[in-house]
Structures are given as C-alpha cells and as structure tokens.
Amino acid sequence: MKLTDIIDTLSLTVVAGDAEREAEGVYAGDFLSRAMSHICADDLWITIMNNVNVIAVASLTDAAAVLLAENVALAPDAVEAAKAKDVTVLSSDKSVYELCAALSRIDGLS
Amino acid sequence: MEEFSLYVLDITMNSVRAGADKIDVTLDDRDGILTFTVADNGCGMTKEQLRRLTDPFFTTRKTRGVGLGVPFLKMLAEQTGGDVRVTSVTAEESPENHGTTLTATFGSDHIDFIPMGDLADTFVTLIQGNPDVDFTFTHRVRNGEVRLSCPELRQILGEGVPLSSFEVLEWIRKYLAEGYAELEK
C-alpha cells in the first residue's frame, strides 16, 4: 500500500521525508524499547512519542514511516534527525485508536 | 526495557566495554528520588564523545549506526523529572586516573517510573559474565542498604577461586536475596 494513498485516505500531514515508500503493515505503541523489537521493516508505526529516539528506532527497524497521533509535534532535533536519516514522519489529529480503526478498513495492510 | 534493572545492566556493560576493571554501581532510593551512579576506571570518553552521548545516532559500535543505551536512560530520567550527567577523563589525559562517572536521577514515585525489576539477578549476571572485574554494588533505601563488594569477596576467598564458580555465584545469590528480604521487613 503506497504511503501517498494512506495519506490521502486518512488526511495525514507530512512532517518530514518523502512519501514514496510502501507500507506493508502497522505497529502501534509508545514504549520505544518494545517497539524496537516489534516493528517490522515497512511497517507504518503509530505513536505519541515525539523525541529523537523515535527517529532512531524507526531508522533501526526500517519502518516505512512514523505516524504521530493526537497532533503531537515532533521535537526540533527529531525533525533534523528525520531529514538526515531519511525517515518519513506523518501526523494526524486523530487518536491512535481512531487511526488503527481507519487503517483496518484499508486493504493491503497486515 | 520495562524494568529498571535492565537499564542498570545495559549502562554497567558500557563500563565493561570501556575496559574498566573497577566499577562501582550505586543506587540511592530515598524520599522519592532515585540516584543511579556508575563510576568506572575505563578508557574514558573524549569531549566530542561526551557531547554526542545522548544522541541516538552516535555509537562506538561498528555494525549499526544507532546506540540507544544512554538515550533511553536519559528519556526515562527526563520523563520522571530527573536528568543524566556524565563526567569523563580519557587515558590520554590521565594515564593514572582515568574513567567515566555517570549519574542519573529519577523520580521513583513518578507515575511514569517503571518497576525496579530483579536487581540481585542483574548483579549476579554482571559478576558471572565478568568475573575479573572488581564490582561494588550498593543499593541504599530509606531503611538500610544491600551491598556487595567483589574486591572484599576476593580477599576472603583467596586468589584461586573465580567469582564465576557455581558455589560462589550461589552464595552471592543467597546473600543478596537475604539482604533484600531484610529491607522488606
């Protein structure tokens, strides 16, 4: 599933990076050490954490993109890191639950 | 890392990897403030390494360019109203007196603080994996402390007995369990 299609369907904002990648699955969670061992490559990762460590975990796990819920703003140093490491960061005013529910109605994500 | 003992293991292993043979690990948990200190005599860090210590994209590891040990520790500290400070002297700066001291504070009553986990097990794991390192573990709480000194153990046991031998590790396990049981009273 193309990120651009997900962005259109869920009305997401692009905070950093391009949206050229495809997402294969979804992971939702905020505990970074746990997320680090559970995110699969090409997952769209939904979280409310906004510090630079989020970018490090996304980079390490090769997540397709980070999706920040509840209008959480990315810390300035995290924006810089996302650009430097080519990590795509998206944002939405919806809650994690609402985003998961909406994504569950999209075919092609596991 | 859902228990604090895992942070203790992770940060202390940094000292082992820095080539330290003397490492003091102290936990002081009183009046809702937990102070965690690791002081070693390892190779130390340069000013540049110190500056980038909390940057997750900085690591001395060669295999992948991300190091999250100290960044995660700092995040937990800041989430609970504390912080992390590190001072270091490199072997080049002082061949006789080098090493690194990391001090992290946490609000141990803070809603976002995590369970302590099994510290006795962490101490045993560290000794078992690094029997030649002189660890001193001190865990101080309001009503007393648990303390284990590897140099003192070595003195009592004599040269020929490695601390990683089964009987010694079992004794340490029991000693720490008794110490922690005493604090529970």
How would you describe this protein?
The complex is a heterodimer of chains A (110) and B (185). Chain A has helices spanning 3-10, 32-38, 52-61, 76-84, 96-104; strands spanning 13-16, 25-28, 43-47, 65-68, 89-91. Chain A has 110 residues and is of the alpha/beta class. Chain A has a single domain, classed as 3-Layer(aba) Sandwich (Udp-n-acetylmuramoylalanyl-d-glutamate--2,6- Diaminopimelate Ligase, Chain: A, domain 1), CATH 3.40.1390.20. Chain A has a five-stranded mixed sheet with strand order 1-5-4-3-2, sandwiched between helices. In chain A, helix 4 (76-84) links the parallel strand 4 (65-68) and strand 5 (89-91). Chain A is globular and about 35 Å long. Chain B has 185 residues and is α+β, with helices and mostly antiparallel strands. Helices cover 37% and strands 25% of the residues of chain B. Chain B starts with a helix and ends with a helix. The model of chain B has no long low-confidence stretch (mean pLDDT 94). Classes of the chains: A alpha/beta (110), B alpha+beta (185). At the A-B interface, helix 2 and helix 3 of A face helix 3 of B.
Give a summary of the structure in a few sentences.
The complex is a heterodimer of chains A (110) and B (185). Chain A has 110 residues and is of the alpha/beta class.
Fold topology:
The complex is a heterodimer of chains A (110) and B (185).
Chain A: H1 3-10, E1 13-16, E2 25-28, H2 32-38, E3 43-47, H3 52-61, E4 65-68, H4 76-84, E5 89-91, H5 96-104
Parallel strand pairs in A: 2-3, 3-4, 4-5
Antiparallel strand pairs in A: 1-5
Helix pairs in contact in A: 2-3, 3-4
Chain B: H1 4-17, E1 22-30, E2 33-40, H2 47-51, H3 69-79, E3 84-89, E4 99-107, H4 119-129, E5 134-141, E6 144-149, H5 150-157, H6 166-184
